[in-house]
């Protein structure tokens, strides 16, 4: 018992004495509304700032994307921006790097600080030298799905308008290229057709090759609500017993890489049981008759044999989806990251065609995009085949339009399609790609078969890294340009359901760091001057809003998007004019290709099936607490709650191999080997082990197979053969004991 | 280990203890627990009264087995209902009888059943609230121990009338003996074809599951009871929706207490008109009263509605013992005080309402002139502070503050303004609490403030007793 | 069921859509009914009872956040009876819990002329601060048991069910299963609970450390463990 003290009120924004202990009540200097820098959901964040420290993050409860909900990354994981490992001064490598003998320099002692003037002049010198010596095919750039639309637009503009190359790509190649290729072939549009939040209006939805409660957490909780509160039925088709399986009516636990037989068998059931939406098929699609013939062999029994999924589950799933009034399909990298990623996506697209579950609210084809701005970077032409707005580079009219906008002489732009992300590195040799500009990406973590990637990186003649941290790829660079984080700059990003939203400056740039768009404008002017171009492509913008106005002139999807219009809740593209309300779902009347094409697909096994020597299939992915290569999350308090890599292994396998939970093991494929601890869990499927891609000390991509899908050029991250052997405690890269978690 | 229990449902045999699930009554005060444990079991209950309808099989010291019950006319109401009446006919009979709930709220039972019968959905439940936890009550315990089949028959009739297929019998944990008797009766009924499928050759199917409470007073609140059956913490729900539309597991549910259900076979067997021959126009039938405290013969008394308090107290229970009448606590801890001035109030819903006294569950707890009412009030307040579930603020906070104030009042340290404070807290709990627990947690105190304002005076000395 | 109902709020007739809560109906009629536990994005549980109003003919006061308007209802949003309940609830709350960081409740205390010393020397809830994870602290001495955190952890948002209640009555507190630390629980640290906490009982650790007078650099260091972020080098 104590006598209560009179407790004063917060006092007009001034810190006041409270309680005898003398605590302060912290009142924000300002609160800034912005968009989360992590995943493609695009949640609204309200950053509360005191003395340039973001001390709290909340969200707008009225926001259409996340209704005030956030995940651990969005709410607490922003502290990487304050990391003392962040680079905030331009750096140049002390030791000149030679092609073929390039080394990684993580330590600051191997770099010297430079002025912006020196760093940009040096970059200009080297890039222009290589371009003038070897020509446009020697130049390549990785754009960035984390950077803003404006940043990406400018970067591809530099390489296209100044260096005349289409060797422009970004990590979308590694995520959804299989989906994009399939969607372009069948309907000529690659974005998510519907809005994720519509899931609560669906009767049935399929999640396949995706782990939304960890990788798109806010969409994940909308999906949980759809099941728990709105009575929708969930079908999970995934090798792993992901959290969403707890909410599912049906779970089809297929072997990795057996999507096509399962999807085709579902189609087989839909066709044979007369569940086809005839009206839709006749009015909106072509190729049905030929397609149906190819389904004959895909009986549920055949699919069961290949995929390991009980045929009755396949039949029931087909019926459930086909009989729904409104059925949605959500998919992720488990569909696309295979050497048959395109075929696997087509298999899904066919299901929507057969049932007519597309072109209406709460239906559709919904590839969940990973990065906060992977949709936007793709929209901005950060791809080797397209100008902004998915305009083919090898189309003469398109080229002429962009030449005009960019003040490039007629015929000046390159009409040849460029190299993709993976190809850029495999072409890194004399006579091939010599200079690589990397903005924000980290191929040394994200490419498959990293030992091979390392060799390619070493072959480059000049590398410029533009980033916050010296990551595994930036460590190979000659020059490091320190960019500001998302909290220190203005711009827009486009989320997975095509909503263009604002990113706002919340705090002053740390150190000498500069926003990417400013760095790029500065660099472009220097390059343009050095090249002696008679006309300027225009690189002087007062703000990112002016950059958006420029690409809006030729990209009809963004024509009606202005900063004023997206002030609070953003707009969903396409927004063809400045009074257009935006587009929550696509294809109401027709597809961009007119009719949707059925493109028959056959089953192709994974490239590297398990065998006696490598008896397990390794599948890779992400976890809730971390992000991609870890530059952000491993420099954050997030690392405290998930500090070390683990390999998830099913209890049956663990018992068979005599492994205990938490034991150090060596996991090896034909390409590499890592040491980490086990986590014995039923979340894994027997015979299949899982590793997350975030941990440099045991990089999953040292093991993954660099076999590519022939059409999409996406690597087969989701399945390769590995073996597991016991390892010693002292061989672990870190002695950290993994935090025991109650959750999945 | 000896634990203090707020209520064992043995007020007729106070002081009482429960030793290894055996109820002990009339134990000597001040004797060590080890000695108590060796004492004899609680005696058969004293059951009396001017009518023996509900209690006709009670107080004999034996529990009728199925055959005895049937031989005594048991299950004839169920047979009659199934063979001669439609479900709507059962409800009509019940409505005509004027039966109202005996749990305290006095809601017309027929209306409740009709509402559940008319609710949409095939899945419905009957819940028997046998969580008789009101300090001062023991009537349901005696009914369950001495006439378990009557409880089952009442539930069966409710199931038949409302179209329910399943019943839950929720018995408080402090009644292990009643639970044993009920479990045995349920087993007998299944074996005898009175529970299960296609009962008495009809399409009517009914299952009954016995559930035990876990010692929380709040679980006697019908919606908290549902939560408890559903496996959740016993928090009362916001009403509406009412149980008849969304009750147990969200399905239409009829919840009645034991005494109410035991009335039903009588009504169906004899007919509404016969039932109405006893009691008054607005309060037909008989009522069970639990007499305890300073009376010569504490026990269970069945009387027709309409007799006076004086009749029950003096003629049946043998009058006040140990002194003169100081106060009667009506309706239990959640009730209100009466004095000698109320002795001629007739025991009907309408008369008691006029006198501002709750009938509640039929508790008549008598205090003679030697009793310290401040201590009694502190004890009641302590009970509510212990038993509040903590959901709504008025009760969660008010019960504790009420107890604190009454503690200092009882210790003779009342402060100026305490009476007003108790009154504000009390009225706030009464007006603003979420469920019946909070709404009645201060009624005894409020009635005491009205009757004996001097008890709460700031300069009041700790008196050994209050002299009226 | 008719589409609208007409009722009288503080003497003013008003027509609202069927199903409108008295809270919203009162707002439409221009009467501001105060609330504490209510949050537009959480399930209303009618816990705090500050929003009670008098409905003529009803035995007890009705919680406006969940009670719905009915035809012909006559509602008083702030008469003497209502004021007594609201004032007493505020006094009770202030007597038990540290609500110094809930400015809205403080304003209500003033508005209802609540006496902050009404209960004098009485039992308060003063549990220790729980600092068991790098993301947020739990200071349940400030908890008013509005249930928002429990609900957003469950079916109002996250479906994670990491926190629930322990204790009963005055001793009720929000807790994990068996009072495990959050890191051992099913918590995913989404912080939905922090986002809806009205009193500062749940608070981002960095904000809390700033309040302790720590410098921003120290705040950041304190929310990280030592030496774990050394990257692998080749």
Describe the 3D structure.
The complex is a heterotrimer of chains A (744), B (468) and C (234). Chain A is of the alpha/beta class and 744 residues long. Chain A is 28% helix and 18% strand. The model of chain A is unreliable at 1-22 and 738-744 (pLDDT under 50). By secondary structure, chain B is of the alpha/beta class. Helices cover 39% and strands 13% of the residues of chain B. In chain B, the strands form three sheets. Chain B has a six-stranded mixed beta sheet with strand order 3-9-8-12-10-11, sandwiched between helices. Chain C has 234 residues and is of the alpha+beta class. In chain C, β1 (4-9) and β2 form a beta hairpin. In chain C, α6 packs across α7. The N and C termini of chain C lie far apart (73 Å). The model of chain C is unreliable at 226-234 (pLDDT under 50). Chains A and C meet through β2, β5, α1, α7 and α22 of A and α5, α6 and α7 of C.
Summarize the model shown.
Chain B has 468 residues and is α/β, with parallel strands linked by helices. Chain B is built from 18 helices and twelve strands. The two termini of chain B are 41 Å apart.
Radius of gyration of chain C: 21 Å
CATH topology of the largest domain in chain C: Alpha-Beta Plaits
For the biggest sheet of chain A, the summary is:
7 strands, mixed
Helical percentage of chain A: 25-40%
Mean pLDDT rating of chain C: 92
Could you tell me the mean pLDDT of chain A? Answer: 94
- Give the domain tally of chain C: 3
**E-strand count of chain A:** 32
Which CATH class of the largest domain in chain A? Alpha Beta
